[in-house]
Design goal:
The chain has about 800 residues and is of the alpha/beta class. About 40% of the residues lie in helices and about 20% in strands. It is built from 25 helices and 26 strands. The longest helix has about 55 residues. The radius of gyration is 48 Å and the shape is elongated. The chain starts with about 25 loop residues before the first strand and ends in a 27-residue tail after the last helix. Bound molecules: adenosine-5'-diphosphate and magnesium ion.
Length: about 800
């Protein structure tokens, strides 16, 4: 069992029979080894050059050819002493010796056995040592561990080869068949090119299992190193390959391009881009990136898909208003004029906007909150934004966020995406053409979040004055300064806006318009605008006030003006057609002929109930599209005292109903209800479809009124409408959306409105004039509500039990 690294010895001297059991003497000359550890059974050629070592070899050859090979701890020691040698060495036999012309000798040795160095005598002409042979410690039976280790070591050696370790196939063949754990350990260790101290650590171990374990550890470490090494190599090679390939291909491409006469086109284009980049006056980082990409573009094929992508990017980069801005008008008088020109009413809102502009006059980049206009559709939120931009002389861009789910829509897709584009914010800036436009983030309450990321967090960054001076769009890959942009937002409702976003914003509410306001707006704004759009003049048409009122009442049902504007537009189109067909003179649109233009009325006005009824109460609700009236019906039926709730109720409303029921039950006597009725009757509450209120507790007092009415058979007064939250004890708490609700009540021609006492100051926001005929009653407990809303007890017919209640027509009167 031996390996020979360099077998070509020319001059042979005696050979030895290695098979023969050799007796190892207890004293041996020592050959110190410098950077190698030799194990038993190994045949290795060695150069010997040190004087003392040559002597030792001579001595050995003179005796019985045996010598102790002991490794030096410190390679640089010329004259090692006892302490400089490891205490375990290998007794070996010198198989051949060859004298070299320069005086050195070369020997071939074969390791025989591990030997413990007892002592070293360094006083003579060569080192001489007393040794004791170490017996191999074998386990009596081959354990599972040994088996596993043997297999592991074999497999690991294979692996090492695959990772590029240089081990000869002969050695591998031996390893594959070697069953002796000790020898396997030695042979493997000798082929791993271990550091001397690691190699020595294997030599030190007499126990074969422990030795194999140690080799296994070393082997694992080696494999780790090899793996990393290989990764590095592959990477390096790939890099070289790629760049060479690319270079080669480009050379070819150039040749082809010049052959086809194409190169010039691209050169021209890149020259143009270069000019554009200079003209754009980008910040340094952006410009550097643009120039880098330009260099890349120069080398690309003009028709490649990648080139098109990069060209696109270049266009956008150079088109962005990096340093182009408009000059603000800070004349507040003019701003006020503009706002008044564009919008009727809205005094409070306009005041607040002018305040914000005043701050801007004093401070260039105020870090104040973002204005958020909140209100139902069509009340002028978006058009106010446009008007503010006009007042300031800024560009206006509206950015609709409705249905934006994906963060990338705000922040853009990486350029590597097929069809990638910048996000909406950068698009808006590009569209504006200046870096200080007014950007209106419309419908910010409709932003959704899902697996594609949360757009709100991107928006937060956009709106944050601390961060938005370096807004990074994924597509651009460089930052853009948004701090000069004025952002405004709009929403229908506040509660779906992410709280962190909402905190950034100062809310301005626009509740909706009364019929009179609508008519005024129609006369001053909507009609002239639509006439203009349809090419007709004041000479062609004359719309009477009563006609407008009719349109508002019978063709629209909204807090805002959208539908009204559409109807007016329809009239204008019809008139335009008549004129085009040769009609002479002004066309009159009056109460009498409105339907000729618009067809039959679409809306049966939502009216108060026709008569007082038991169990039907009129509530006021607040929906996303403004205020609304809703009729809550309660019906008592023979049963077991259950409360049955049906119709449009959410959880909060269900709880309100429960609270109202409990309250009524606890006050039965006071309310003139026989207590056993609660057990003998089921109470069925229904909230009709159609009015889809935002789920809230504000129907509480209406629910209670309907219930008590049904149970006590006292009818509810038909012209009383109410809103308020109820507590278990019958107290009335304040609610939201007062302005919208009272506007709706007025539309429904209610004469009395019951409101919570604590909502009294909300009426300041409501114009006085249109409400002069309406009586407001402020309450803080249910007793006051009942006093106002319930009539005298109706004596029920003696025999027929509970009377069937008819659902009033008006409750379902909705546009078809
Ligand atoms: N106070 C007002 N004065 C004049 N026109 C108004 C007023 N409020 C709304 N409008 C007009 O009504 C229409 C709808 O307004 P819009 O801004 O789209 O509403 P919103 O954005 O709130 O849904 C627009 O044509 C707008 O100019
Ligand atoms: Mg809008």
């Amino acid at each position: 069992m031996a390996i020979v690294k360099e077998p070509e010895f020319t001059e042979a001297i005696d050979t030895t029979e290695t098979d023969q059991q050799l007796q190892i003497p207890s004293e041996l000359p020592v050959l110190p080894l410098r950077d190698i550890v030799i194990y038993p059974f190994m045949i290795v050629p060695l150069f010997v050059s040190r004087e003392k070592s040559i002597r030792a070899v001579d001595e050995a050859l003179a005796e019985n050819r045996m010598i102790l090979l002991a490794s030096q701890k410190d390679l640089d020691k010329e004259e090692p002493t006892a302490e400089d040698l490891y205490s375990v060495g290998t007794a070996a036999v010198i198989m051949r010796m060859l004298k070299l012309p320069d005086g050195r000798i070369r020997i071939l040795v074969q390791g025989l056995a591990r030997a413990h160095v007892e002592s070293v005598d360094a006083t003579g002409e060569y080192l001489r040592s007393r040794v004791s042979v170490m017996q191999e410690v074998l386990q009596p039976e081959r354990s599972l561990e040994v088996e596993a280790l043997v297999r592991n070591v074999r497999a690991s050696m294979e692996k090492a080869i695959n990772l590029g370790k240089n081990i000869s196939p002969e050695v591998m063949a031996i390893i594959a068949n070697l069953d002796d754990a000790g020898r396997l350990a030695d042979l493997s260790a000798s082929n791993l090119e271990l550091k001397v101290e690691d190699a020595q650590s294997v030599l030190d171990i007499a126990d074969t299992t422990a030795r194999l374990r140690r080799v296994n550890d070393l082997l694992n470490k080696e494999i780790e190193v090899l793996t990393v090494q290989q990764e590095i190599n592959t990477q390096a090679r790939a890099d070289i390959d790629r760049s060479q390939r690319e270079f080669y291909l480009r050379q070819q491409l150039k040749a082809i391009q010049s052959e086809l006469g194409e190169g010039n086109e691209l050169a021209e284009e890149t020259a143009q881009f270069k000019e554009k980049i200079e003209a754009a006056k980008m910040p340094k980082a952006a410009e550097e990136e643009a120039l880098r990409q330009l260099k890349k573009l120069e080398r690309m094929h003009p028709d490649a898909a990648e080139t098109a992508t990069l060209r696109n990017w270049m266009e956008i980069m150079t088109d962005l208003p990096w340093s182009r801005s408009s000059v603000d008008n800070l004349d507040l008088k003019k701003a006020e004029t503009v706002l008044n020109e564009d919008h009727y009413g809205l005094e409070k809102v306009k005041d607040r906007i002018l305040e914000a502009l005043a701050v801007r006059k004093l401070k260039e980049k105020p870090k104040g909150p973002i204005l958020c206009l909140v209100g139902p559709p069509g009340v002028g939120k978006t058009s106010l934004g446009r008007s503010i931009a006009r007042a300031l002389d800024r560009k206006f861009v509206r950015l609709s966020l409705g249905g934006v789910h994906d963060e990338a829509e705000i922040r853009g897709h990486r350029r590597t995406y097929v069809g990638a584009m910048p996000g909406r914010i950068i698009q808006a800036v590009q569209q504006a053409g200046t870096n200080n436009p007014l950007i209106m983030l419309d419908e910010i309450d409709k932003v959704g979040a899902d697996f594609r990321g949360d757009p709100s967090s991107a928006l937060l960054e956009v709106l944050d004055p601390e961060q938005n001076n370096s807004f990074r769009d994924n597509y651009l890959g460089v930052t853009f300064d948004l701090s000069n942009v004025i952002f405004m937002t709009t929403a229908n409702v506040l509660d779906t806006i992410q709280p962190a976003l909402r905190d950034r914003m100062e809310v301005i509410r626009l509740a909706g318009y009364t019929e009179e306001e609508k008519r005024e707006i129609a006369i001053r704004h909507l009609l002239p605008k639509q006439m203009d759009e349809n090419g007709i003049t004041a000479r062609d048409v004359n719309v009477s006030k009563t006609a407008l009122t009719t349109i508002i009442q019978q063709y629209t049902q909204e807090a805002g003006l959208r539908q009204l504007e559409r109807e007016i537009s329809r009239i204008c189109r019809k008139i335009a057609r008549k004129i085009a067909e040769g009609h002479k003179g002004a066309i009159r649109v009056s109460l009498k002929n409105v339907h000729e233009f618009l067809g039959a009325p679409k809306i049966i006005p939502e009216e108060a109930l026709k008569k007082d009824q038991v169990g039907v109460a009129t509530g006021l609700a607040w929906t996303a599209v403004g205020g609304d009236v809703l009729f809550i019906e309660a019906l008592r039926m023979r049963g077991k005292g259950n409360l049955v709730l049906t119709g449009q109720l959410g959880d909060v409303m269900r709880e309100s109903a429960q609270a109202a029921y409990s309250y009524a039950k606890s006050r039965a006597k006071e309310l003139d209800i026989a207590e056993e009725d609660f057990n003998n009757y089921d109470l069925h509450i229904h909230i009709p479809e159609g009015a889809i209120p935002k789920d809230g507790p504000s129907a509480g007092i209406t629910l209670a009124t309907a219930m008590v009415s049904a149970l006590s058979t006292r009818p509810v007064r038909k012209d009383v409408a109410m809103t308020g939250e109820i507590t278990l004890r019958g107290n009335v708490l304040p609610i939201g959306g007062v302005k919208e609700k009272v506007l709706a009540a007025r539309r429904a021609r209610v004469t009395t409105i019951i409101l919570p006492q604590q909502n009294r100051r909300d009426l300041d926001e409501v114009p006085k004039e249109p409400f002069k005929d309406i009586r407001f009653v402020f309450v803080d407990n249910m007793r006051q509500v009942f006093r106002e809303a319930l009539g005298e007890k109706v004596i029920p017919p003696v025999s027929s039990g509970p009377r069937p209640q008819r659902v009033p027509q008006a409750a379902n009167a909705r546009p078809a």
